[in-house]
Each structure stands twice: as C-alpha cells, then as structure tokens.
From TrEMBL:
Native organism: Apilactobacillus timberlakei
InterPro entries in UniProt: Glyco_trans_1 (IPR001296)
UniProt KW keywords: Transferase
Domain spans labelled Glycosyl transferase family: 209-378
Protein name as it appears in the record: Glycosyltransferase
Classification of source organism: Bacteria, Bacillati, Bacillota, Bacilli, Lactobacillales
Coiled-coil ranges per UniProt: none
C-alpha cells in the first residue's frame, strides 16, 4: 500500500462539505480507496467543522486540516471588495479566498518539510498554486518522478513552478485540457493522460418534492441550471433565451449561488436577478443546495441545461444529467462534446448568437417528442462509461 500525500485547492474543504466539483471527485477517490485499499492517503485541506465530521467513517485516509485565522478571513472579504468594487476585476470572486489560499500553501509547505520522508508519492489536485508548497524548502526534490498533477481546468499562471510541473505526470479531465497542457508546457505527450470524470449517484429523499417546495405547478416543464452564478456558466444567456420562449407552462429553476455557501452577492448575480424579474415566465432561484440533496433536484427536473460560454473542461452537470437520466441541452464548449455527443444531447454553438441558439434548443425539446425519445435511448448506452470503480482503477494506475 503506497503512502500518498494529496494537496487540495486550499479554497474548498475536503471532504466536500461545501460542494465543489473537484472536491467531490476527491471524495470519490477516497471512498473507492476504502474498498480497494491501494493507497494510504493523507489529504491536506483547509478546515471546516462539517468536513471534519465527515471523516469519522474513513479509515485509510487521514486528513491534515489547516485552520484559517479570523484576521485572514476578514482580509479575504477586503480583497474581494477591492477587486470587485474598486478594480472591477472580472475574476473578482477568486479574491474571496486569496489569503486563505496563501496561508494554506505556507502551512502545507511546512508540513511537507517535516514529513516528506514518510510519503512515496504526491498528488496535486487542480490548482497549480499548490505546487508552491512543493517548491518551498525544495520539497519537490524528495519526490523526483513521483508527483502526479490532476488538472481539471485551464490555467494561465504556473506561479513560478513551471519546471516542477514539467517533471510531473499529468492526468487531465478531457482531451481539451490535455491539449492545453501540451501547448503550454514542455512535456512529453507520454506524460499526459486523460482521465474522464465520474459522479456519485446520491440517494433520493422520497418525501422531498421540488414542485411543492417552490410552488411549481404540476403541469409545468422544469428546465434546471446547476452551478455557480458566475459569467462563465452562461446563466444570464440562458435566462434571456428562456424569456424569449412563447410557450407557457414552463419554469426555470436555478440551483446555485455566486460562491460556495459564502455570504457574498456579486454584481453579476444582481444582473441575473434583474433579468429574472423581467420574465413573464416562472423563474426560481434556490440559492446554494447541499450536494447530498442534489439528486432530488435532478430526478424531479424535466430538462438540464448547461449553457457554458467559456471553455468548460468537463462539467460534472453533464455527467450527472446522464447518471440521473435527464435530457440535456449544452453548449459546444471545451470538453463538453467529449462527454455528451449530438446523439445523446442537444448541443448548440457557443457564438455571438448563443441566446438564439439556446432558445431554439429549448423550443425544440418542448415540441419534438420523438427527438427526446431518441436522446433518452442513446443516453442509456453511455451511462456505463462513468462508473466509480473504473474511475478509481484508472486513477490509481498512474500512481506507480
């Protein structure tokens, strides 16, 4: 059993008590490792009360938690305010955890320095800033050819760690991300592999009814968006497309908030709310929903929409729509077509007419029942591609 250290983002806790796509994938790896026991895993994460409670039933993974001082939490809010209100930065939300992440890197580096002889392998999950913990104190020298970088997103800053990254094994969530790595870094193509995401199928609460909870009439078709309320996710364009529909008896359900259960409301979220108020149709925003309850929203929705207007690497919502057997409308963005093809979903062009394209797709799925039946049949054929066991086995095959 290999002793493996995993560095997380330093932004969202693990286990995924406050959601987060990457963090939920880490949870899957941890849970499958409990069954197969290929690794003795140590995960370094920021502290969260609920996350720590979730570790009590886990035996083959230990969690090293880094507690963020209150002063740094206040500095996070200040940095977000400056980035959002004064500097008007498009990525202002990333500043909401700036000092937490810096503190995480510093503390993780100290931990590695003190314990680096105990580990045979290091996994860096997603954010390249975590490599700074390996760079500090020359920690990386103790793990030559034993660093695995699991990349979930495109990044344009290597934080001065390019040479370390280039010596790592790299697994990517899609070929789209693999191509971006090969274009940015001087790495041998044999170093880079694609590991497609998967999702856990959550239990369903038979007593929970979203129509009763949110006052949605029984004869309404429910279109549902899952995700953070940020520009890249395309929720504003989806609302505009939804508002142009002439059909009645329809509801748009927006499941998510601008930040992971943080008490932060962005300017973009305010634009979204204003667009909702203009609608002649019913639009309901749930705010943050705990991931443990998310299955109820999938199974009781009629159609899932992923309107990404950025190069979305591999959104879990696409896989979840397949796992929970829901019709899908999505844009042709990043790695999305690698997970859902034209014969299992309605894929639309992401261009300057994206609102009209989404509107046409919404209209089509409301009125073309034979198409919906065909999509449903084809979706059954690809569902088997996203098993947790296969994901775990493919992941651990790279830890050699």
């Amino acid at each position: 059993m290999k002793k493996v250290l995993m560095l997380t983002s330093g932004h969202v806790p693990v286990p995924a008590s406050r959601s987060g796509g990457v963090e939920n994938l880490i949870d899957i790896f941890v849970e499958e490792n409990e069954k197969f026991k290929d690794c003795k895993l140590d995960v370094i994460s920021i502290y969260d009360d609920e996350a720590e409670k979730m570790t009590r039933e886990i035996h083959d993974t230990s969690f090293t938690y880094i507690h963020t001082p209150m002063i740094l939490r206040k500095l996070n809010k200040l940095s977000y305010f400056i980035a959002n209100r004064i500097l008007k930065k498009k990525n202002a939300m990333s500043y909401a955890s700036l000092f937490t992440r810096i503190f995480y890197i510093y503390q993780a580096a100290k931990y590695i320095k003190l314990n680096r002889n105990e580990y045979e392998y290091v996994i860096v999950e997603n954010h390249p800033s975590a490599f700074m913990a390996l760079k500090k104190y020359n920690n990386y020298n103790y793990f030559e050819n034993k660093i695995l970088y699991h990349v979930h997103n495109e990044f344009h800053n290597d934080y001065g760690c390019k040479k370390i990254i280039e010596k790592s094994k790299i697994i990517c969530v899609s070929q789209f991300i693999a191509n971006s790595i090969l274009n940015r870094f001087n790495v041998n193509p044999n170093q880079v592999k694609v590991l497609r995401n998967c999702v856990r199928k959550m239990s369903i609460d038979q007593e929970f009814n979203i129509r009763e909870k949110y006052g949605i009439p029984n004869n309404h078709v429910i279109f549902t968006f899952f995700g953070r309320i940020i520009p890249e996710k395309g929720i504003l364009q989806l609302i505009q497309a939804f508002n142009k529909l002439e059909e009645d008896k329809i509801t748009l359900l927006i499941v998510g908030s601008s930040a992971f259960e943080e008490n932060i409301s962005s300017d973009y979220e305010k634009k979204v709310r204003f667009e909702c108020l203009k609608s002649k149709h019913q639009i309901i925003s749930t705010g943050y929903v705990d991931y443990e309850k998310i299955a109820n929203y999938y199974t009781q929705s009629d159609v899932i929409v992923v309107p990404s207007i950025w190069n979305d690497p591999a959104p879990l919502t696409v896989i979840e729509s397949i796992i929970y057997d829901r019709p899908l409308i999505a844009t042709i963005s990043g790695g999305i077509p690698e997970y859902a093809s034209n014969n299992s979903a309605i894929l639309v062009e992401r261009n300057d007419k994206v609102v009209d394209n989404l509107n046409a797709a919404l209209h089509q799925i409301l009125n073309n029942h034979s198409l919906v039946d065909e999509l449903n049949r084809n979706r059954q054929l690809i569902r088997k591609d996203f098993t947790l066991e296969q994901y775990y086995k493919d992941y651990t095959s790279y830890i050699v």
